[in-house]
Amino acid sequence: MGPVKVFLFGDIVLPTGFGRIAAQIGRHLTARGYQVLGACIQYDGLLPQPLPFFVAGLAGKDGGMGPMGLATTAARQIAAFQPDVVISIQDFPYHEALHGQGVDWSQMCHVVITPVDGVPVYPKWLQLVDQLDGFMTISEFGVEAFRQAGKRASLCPPGVDTNEFFRLPDEKRGELRDRLHIPRDGFVVGVFAMNQGRKSFPAMVEGFHEAFRDVPNAYLYLDCEKVGAGGWDIPQSIMLPVGLDPTRVRFREDALQAQIGVQNERYNLLDLHMVIAHREGFGLPHIEAMGTGIPSVTMNYCSGAEIIGLAGERGWLVAGTKAEYGTWGGALDYNADIPDLAAKLRDAYDHPAERIARGARALDWVKRERTWERCVLAVEDVVKAAVEKRKPDLERKYQIAMPAPQQVMIPQMPAGQTFSININAPVHIVANNPQEFADALIGQAPQPVMLVEAVAERKDGDGQA
């Protein structure tokens, strides 16, 4: 058995949390000698990617863009590649769809990395865990949720590259604000999240408005689309009803128009970061902001406490209220307590020394505890354990079946008769005794038999040809 062949299924080349995790795992395994092939959701494969392994596109294929269709296309690639290990990094429906595509798992391992966005965990997903060779979740909250359900999960701790996300000099930060017409001494609260229902934009907009009614120098930066894919219009549907002045809000499109295209530069616009979600497996924007020395605000549900710290060491935790059954496997959705959110935002504004101290602790924490090296080594440990456990099955895949020996009956020739040789094309024969072989053929074959001698390459005395 040669290098372990790994098939990565997930976002990979997309700028999502899943994509960042998958790309880092692929880079690491490739550097460690694994043979890696990626298959990326919502990528058509037309543009090359700066990765040390090939990434196939799943978008635009016959299967469609839903979990089942994408898994169907991926299954065909798996059948052709015949990996030793399939690593799928996505939400549970994708793992479930991939596992039900008729893939022959008898000679390959399936390792799943997934978020746990809330509890209780859907019973069908609990059943799937028993069929996997390795199972990881991206939060301590998720590990505990599965432990309480009687299942074992390992931690895949997402990381942040502090060479990519870091604090810029104050003068540079001021220049970036100038481009967006934000005062250099203003107070900027930023949100880095997709414009989607799970991210509680109404709560974040209302909380900001309530916290800073009397602070005209406070600005809200939303690193997302003004209008989401589902038609959610933030200016018209959220800002207008609560009365938030649109001149105090900037969007990602504003930053891009001001030629602030580097994500780290956009984080450096902020004094405080927040993402309030009804449920959250693990929010990478929190630790990316922390890489720039900025503390964060999130709700005390799912992974919030492990990111911020139970005592708010690295930011502020907001109380959740009114649990309701959501659409993600029946897990409970929580709503932020708006008065508490507004109070926490105002506390960060009113106590700049404490805000800076929490930002410093956040930066120290991500440098120590949230490195990509820690993440990819944890994944490799699970992969190695799965390969070792299934080694006999994997080796069987590489064994070439030899045909069973068969007895061949040689016909007996009548006395006085010999075999005849009928050769209709030139035949080249290599033998240790070429002259004897040629003499034996002369008279047996109807064609002339010629002995062609090979000419050895001659070298002169100094070894030159």
Description of the structure:
The protein has helices spanning 17-31, 67-81, 92-99, 123-129, 140-148, 170-179, 201-211, 234-242, 252-257, 263-267, 284-291, 304-308, 338-350, 352-369, 372-389, 391-398, 434-441, and strands at residues 5-10, 35-40, 54-57, 85-89, 109-114, 134-137, 154-155, 187-192, 218-223, 249-251, 272-274, 296-299, 315-318, 320-325, 332-336. The protein is built from 17 helices and 15 strands. With 465 residues, the chain is of the alpha/beta class. The protein has two domains: 5-159 and 373-397, Rossmann fold (3-Layer(aba) Sandwich), CATH 3.40.50.11930; 170-370, 3-Layer(aba) Sandwich (Rossmann fold), CATH 3.40.50.2000. The model is unreliable at 457-461 (pLDDT under 50). β1 (5-10), α1 (17-31) and β2 form a beta-alpha-beta unit. Strands 3-2-1-4-5-6-7 form a seven-stranded parallel β-sheet, sandwiched between helices. Strands 10-9-8-11-12-13 form a six-stranded parallel β-sheet, sandwiched between helices.
Look up the CATH topology of the largest domain. Rossmann fold
How would you write the strand order of the largest sheet? 3-2-1-4-5-6-7
Individual helix count: 17
Beta content comes to 15-25%
Class from helix and strand fractions: alpha/beta
Give the termini distance in whole angstroms: 41 Å
CATH class category label of the largest domain? Alpha Beta
- Global morphology: elongated
How many separate domains make up the residues? Answer: 2
State the assembly state of the protein chains: single chain
Count of DSSP E strands? 15
Low-pLDDT sequence parts: 457-461
